[in-house]
Amino acid sequence: MAGVRGTPPVRAVGFACLAIILPLLASCASVIPDAGGRGSAPPPPRSESATPAPVPVPSGPVRPYTPRPSTAPGAAAQPIPATPNPPLPAPAPPAGATTAAEAGVILGPEYTELGIAPDRATAALKAFRLSCPALQRRADASGLTRNAEWAESCAAATGWADRDASNFFSRYFGTVQIGAGTAFVTGYFEPEIAASRTKQPGYDVPIYRRPADLVDVDLGLFSDALKGKKIRGRVDGSSFVPYYDRTAIERGALANRGLEIAWAADAAEFFFLQVQGSGRLRLPDGSIMRIGYDSQNGRDYVGIGKLLLDRGELQPGQASMQGILDYLRADPARGAAVMNENPSWVFFRELTGPGPLGALGIPVTGRVSVAADPRYVPLGAPVFLSLDRAEPNGLWIAQDTGGAIKGANRFDSFWGAGDRARAIAGGMAARGSALLLLPRASVARLTGR
């Protein structure tokens, strides 16, 4: 999952790249994608410019892949069907809309009409209370709210009784629909994989910290036309070039630099831990080491599930995390080549405090926290989901972001840790409608009511 990403000062950048950055941005380095690209469902195509290096195809005959029912712990849970509320009638969002305010805002029903269970409201209030300090400091990229409009509800949340959470949300929030209101929801979780702090037999997959030569560049410092855009790469002589992709890293581009914080036992499990963005390492002595996102190589995230579906290697319904893991393990050489078609690589740091941390810099909570696109949802805001799968229905708090989580009414639900969380998140793909809960002052300003 995406945590708070500090941007280091711009270091020396090759003049050759900057001199042509406006017309030829794609040739110099990748526009920084959000971390992870979480969620096991195939993400939407990316628009950034990085091109994966050619991946060698294993020589010799390739064994056909025959899916088998998974018996591993955390096998995808059978969905519990539900009937979602239809979206509210709304005009089509304007072409080229890039924020919630531009996509259009429709007044929704009162909180009391949503049918939210009291225990879900209590859990959401606890998470909202934690979000308030960051929520009131952040500039809202969605264009929906102003910092001062959160002051009343955040002040009230401080001393509000958890058992009376339903009345809290009813009193301080109205609901709105963004654009067409049609929601798509995937899932993520905090994986636990076998690893060791030192390299030893059975533990030979390196887990790297952020390298010192990985450079973030804020392009807005060089041109007003590029405000809000960043690139990430490395200095090579007098040029600024894309950072090493997954293939290069797998081949040892970062070896012997002292960057390893641990060694994983299973390359495929570690691949999915990178997709999730954080996780737990189960060490040989049974203790747990927790790791979190510490940057990414700037390369585009490529969902291998979509690749396998497009090629007919997997059939619809088989591209869950569990189904993809089965595919990767059925033929390790072929699996390694497929994983390298995702050029993105995530770097980690050890976490010693509470976590995992979301994009607000606070711990996310299973069955409460949801990742969203901050251009369409103010981070920290409550979200109501009504979907064709019962498990994610109800009230959530937007506390995270993700590389595949882009656009209006696109969410990634967090389910915590353990086999149950893995089972639900790994196969989550639900559709229906979504409403945002915003301060009443924001709702009145946006809708005139």
Automatic annotation (TrEMBL):
Pfam families: 3D, MltA. Residues 35-97 are annotated as: Disordered. Residues 192-349 form the Lytic transglycosylase MltA domain. It comes from the Bacteria. One of its GO terms (molecular function) is hydrolase activity, hydrolyzing O-glycosyl compounds. It is an enzyme of class 4 (lyase). It catalyses: Exolytic cleavage of the (1->4)-beta-glycosidic linkage between N-acetylmuramic acid (MurNAc) and N-acetylglucosamine (GlcNAc) residues in peptidoglycan, from either the reducing or the non-reducing ends of the peptidoglycan chains, with concomitant formation of a 1,6-anhydrobond in the MurNAc residue. Residues 53-67, 81-94 have a biased composition (Pro residues). Keywords: Cell wall biogenesis/degradation, Lyase. InterPro entries: 3D_dom, MltA, MltA_B, RlpA-like_sf. Its EC number is 4.2.2.n1. One of its GO terms (cellular component) is outer membrane. GO terms for biological process: cell wall organization; peptidoglycan catabolic process; peptidoglycan turnover. The keyword Thylakoid does not apply. This is peptidoglycan lytic exotransglycosylase.
